[in-house]
Amino acid sequence: MATSKLQALWNHPAGPKTIHFWAPTFKWGISIANVADFAKPPEKLSYPQQIAVTCTGVIWSRYSTVITPKNWNLFSVNVAMAATGIYQLSRKIQHDYFSEAEAAVAKEQ
Q1: Which of 28, 49, 60, 108 is the most exposed place for a label (fewest CB within 10 A)?
Q2: Which structural domain range is residue 28 located in?
Q3: Where does the sequence pass through the membrane (predicted)?
Q4: How would you class 50 by CB atoms within 10 Å of its CB: exposed for 0-12, middle for 13-18, buried for 19 or more?
Q5: What is the pLDDT of residues 41-77, one digit of tens each?
Q6: Domain membership flag for residue 12
Q7: How far apart are CA 84 and CA 107, in angstroms?
Q8: What is the pTM of this model?
Q9: Does the pLDDT value for residue 92 go beyond 70?
Q10: Backbone phi, psi, residue 45, to 5°
């Protein structure tokens, strides 16, 4: 039973013998690194890097549902990339634009 399931995975069109398997697997590393950066102060985050992560996640989440065979690993990793990128961008924007405005208002009072 287990042998037939392993053989089915091995011979699947999106299985480990193809780039369709390995590309999203390595992209999980980017998502995990972005989660690890949640502890990083917002001033050390990069707009270009986070925009690239977010856009890649959003664009490929859509197209991963169109390709044949459906690659749910690719879809999942891109949703994770989009989510972590949006979160990091929101942290950066809030720090750069809203914390300064609040400080200026507090200074005037």
Answers
A1: 108
A2: 19-108
A3: none
A4: buried
A5: 999 999 999 999 999 999 999 988 888 877 888 899 9
A6: no
A7: 33
A8: 0.76
A9: yes
A10: -80, 155
DSSP tag of 97: I
Distances (CA, A) of 80 to 4, 65, 95, 99, 103: 31, 15, 23, 27, 33
- Helices 19-36, 72-93: inter-axial angle, 10-degree rounding: 20
DSSP string, 22-62: HHHHHHHHHHHHHHHGGGS-GGG--HHHHHHHHHHHHHHHH
Q: Is residue 90 in a domain?
A: yes
> How distant, in Å, are the alpha carbons of 15, 17, 30, 104 from that of 34?
26, 28, 6, 31
> Is the Cβ–Cβ distance between 91 and 42 less than 8 Å?
yes
Total domains, the chain: 1
The amino acid that residue 77 corresponds to is V
In a domain, 72, yes or no: yes
Q: Are 35 and 91 in contact (CB under 8 A)?
A: no
* Residue 14 covered by a domain: no
**Could you tell me if 87 and 73 are in contact, meaning their C-beta atoms sit under 8 angstroms apart?**
no
74 contact partners, CB below 8 Å, separation of at least 6: 20, 23, 24, 27, 60, 64, 67
